[in-house]
Prior knowledge:
Blueprint: E1 12-19, H1 23-35, E2 41-45, H2 53-56, H3 68-71, H4 87-100, E3 107-109, E4 111-119, E5 124-131, E6 137-147, E7 171-173, E8 188-192, H5 196-206, E9 211-216, E10 222-225, H6 230-239, H7 241-265, H8 267-281, H9 288-291, E11 304-307, H10 310-316, E12 320-324, E13 327-330, E14 334-337, E15 342-344, E16 347-350, E17 363-366, E18 369-371, E19 378-379, E20 383-384, E21 390-392, H11 401-422, E22 426-429, H12 447-452, H13 471-480, E23 488-491
Parallel strand pairs: 1-2, 1-6, 2-3, 4-17, 6-21, 7-16, 8-9, 8-16, 9-12, 10-11
Antiparallel strand pairs: 4-5, 5-6, 13-14, 14-15, 17-18, 19-20, 22-23
Amino acid sequence: MTNTTAGQTKPVHVDVLIIGAGISGIGAASHLKARRPGTSFTVLEARDTLGGTWSLFRYPGIRSDSDMPTYGFGFKPWTHRKSIADGHVILDYLQQTVAENGLAEHIRYGYRVVGAEFSSVRGRWTVTAQHARTGKKARFTARFLFLGTGMYDHDQGFTPVFDGVEDFGGQVVHPQQWPEGLDYTGKRVVVIGSGATAVTLIPSMARTAGHVTMLQRSPSYIFSAPAEDPITNALNALLGHRRAQPIVRRKNIAVTRAMYKVCRRAPRLMRKLLIADVRRRLPKNFDVDTHFTPRYDPWDERLCVVPDGDMFKAISAGRASVVTDRIDRFTKTGIRLESGQELAADIVVTATGLNMLPFGKIRLSVDDRPVDPSDTMAYKAMMLSGMPNLVFALGYTNLSWTLKVDLVCEHFCRLLDHMDLHGYSTVEPVLDDRHQERVPYLDLKSNYVQRGIARFPCAGSRGPWTVEQAYEKDVERLREGPVEDSGLQFTSAGAELSASRPEGAR
């Protein structure tokens, strides 16, 4: 394949152009390399390194909030002893995946995709990318576009407007823009927020900070899980990682799905159990009702996982504390609350959430017609109505992200096999059911979801247009179900993908 450079003038053409070298893009490239060895592909990454989330976020204690045997790829066993792993260990795993599958030569760093247009006449995408270092634009063409861009804005996190923040004499930091070398040793730290980022930051910073205070408007459900799973490690020792992997994954999927289903079907019971677990991990007189009893039902928002109860240990040891109140304004020395209390701080961390963003701000169009993702409907939660030859990967919110990515990539390869077999050059999901109800792509009530979900494609109420966040149902329709159905329109234009069809393709 011709190597792209910042000054290229002639577009580079590939069968599949993958956008993003995070876990979704690396997964797509790995599946193509293994299942479709003749398919040419390139991965465009806006930043200068791979890893997505795991190289972007640098805040203290960053780690997975899903178990790694299922967050890792199905084709590459997770071998580290920790099931809840630190960010740098996950990044090492992704770098190993790239090396083992020979993907490095396919990745082009520093190319931020700004626009992608599909031509029905040519049956291909033309993609425009801007090089981060030179600012020059480069063009790529491809039969298929695979969007592995995730679901949030990598450039900027969400920070509310706080009165008086300009008066504060200390430092205000958002976890997404963590300053390199920030020294918080012995300092008073206030972390605003109660979600996954906050409960990760607090026990890590509390090891060396003078004191860390979690300031929250309202509590979240926090669930303690072992950092090392003794059953998983025993199976790995007995059977070896390769043979143990399918057993461990089935176990972890079953446990996680069962817990989710019980939360939804018996919310009062699970509420009592979750809060009782918190109560037993904190000092006897701790005000759990105020600080760790949410107003909503379990899994209306994501559960926050803490490995080995590390946050509760930091609170019990007096290194961290929790305040539940609303912010009146920042002062020179800290934050004044609506109750009148003032929290003294040297550093304030605004762990206030992400900005949800579909498909990396890429301007999409078909035959010179701009397409707003919010006007489309997701087909099998991996393609978009009215968008030919486009596949995207958005992982689960109630299970490991990568389980969905693997299924999408498997189905994508089967789709290419099917098109090769029948001589099709394009495929487009067509919404032919006028009575299909439009519903949000995600049904979580979290603030970050509610702020941004209107910009995403919608889901449907039935058939292949549903987005159910249910692994067992996606296995049925993506891994085991037929490729062709009434929702897809295939066309032939005398051009086929260059890859050869693997044996046994359906």
